[in-house]
């Protein structure tokens, strides 16, 4: 049985470091753009994760609406800004998890879950009681509080956090979060404490932590510093996913960020990979070829299995 503290009152929200204090339980929206009602924009099998997450049939992803970071280059901005999504009850979330399991999903993949963490802890526990046995993946931009992650201890099997920036100047400019690295580093410590060493079965990760870093154009120095930090702190206890899939939003230049209006060059990406090899990183995922394309950005106009869940509500 989960402790009552896992479901702290959302009257003064402190789930993420913004600590905006919004009365989300009363229907107000926080910095994340969401009230306490859990909203999802897409529920589907998803093949575009790391191979040990996607597996043969796909990762059972639930894309949640809103975001505590709202990076200027967000690839999922349609949902991060709260423009899309449907409110789901705890029972409907449980049904979604079990429906995905029935479709042979490799896992339940909670995408941008931070601001709903207390509610998701309740849903995961209930789903496990109803027969959920596949791993639960917490797929996060990594801007939460350690106290929030502790709500999920024993419920999440695989942590899939970003580590976007080492530089305070970059995190301030692109995510309005100058404390991003300090917070994210503390959170990865907690994730590794919970998952310990990686466990694989038939090529799928059943427990562990994979830290993602997406290389940004012009900022290979920051990327190299992130890899050095991660390997120095955790060695082979974690996996590092080094991504070249940055896709510039069409309006990024007009918004005042012209330096982000191009893709990462092959030479830039190779520079970061070479540094990882020289540093001694062995447990890593890399991307080959032209991966900065639309296949990595789901179609949120096609709600996948979300439609069937909503149709059941109407019957």
Oligomer: single chain
| Class of secondary structure makeup | alpha/beta
Shape: globular
| Terminal Cα span | 32 Å
Taken as a percent bin, the fraction of beta residues is: 15-25%
Number of DSSP helices? 10
Low-confidence stretches: 1-9, 291-297
- Largest β-sheet summary: 10 strands, mixed
Mean pLDDT: 91
| Tally of strands | 10
Defining traits:
globular; ten-stranded mixed β-sheet; alpha/beta; 16% strand; 10 strands; 315 residues
Topology readout:
Elements: E1 39-46, H1 51-54, E2 59-64, H2 77-80, E3 86-87, H3 90-102, E4 108-111, H4 117-129, E5 136-140, H5 146-150, E6 158-161, H6 168-175, H7 180-195, E7 199-201, E8 204-214, H8 220-234, E9 239-243, H9 266-279, E10 284-286, H10 306-314
Parallel strand pairs: 2-4, 4-5, 5-6, 6-8, 8-9, 9-10
Antiparallel strand pairs: 1-2, 1-3, 7-8
Helix pairs in contact: 3-4, 8-9
3D structure, described in words:
By secondary structure, the chain is α/β, with parallel strands linked by helices. It is 32% helix and 16% strand. It has helices spanning 51-54, 77-80, 90-102, 117-129, 146-150, 168-175, 180-195, 220-234, 266-279, 306-314, and strands at 39-46, 59-64, 86-87, 108-111, 136-140, 158-161, 199-201, 204-214, 239-243, 284-286. Strands 1, 2, 3, 4, 5, 6, 7, 8, 9 and 10 form a ten-stranded mixed sheet that branches. β9, α9 and β10 (284-286) form a beta-alpha-beta unit. The longest helix is centred in the middle third of the chain and has 16 residues, at 180-195. Mean pLDDT is 91; it is low at 1-9 and 291-297.
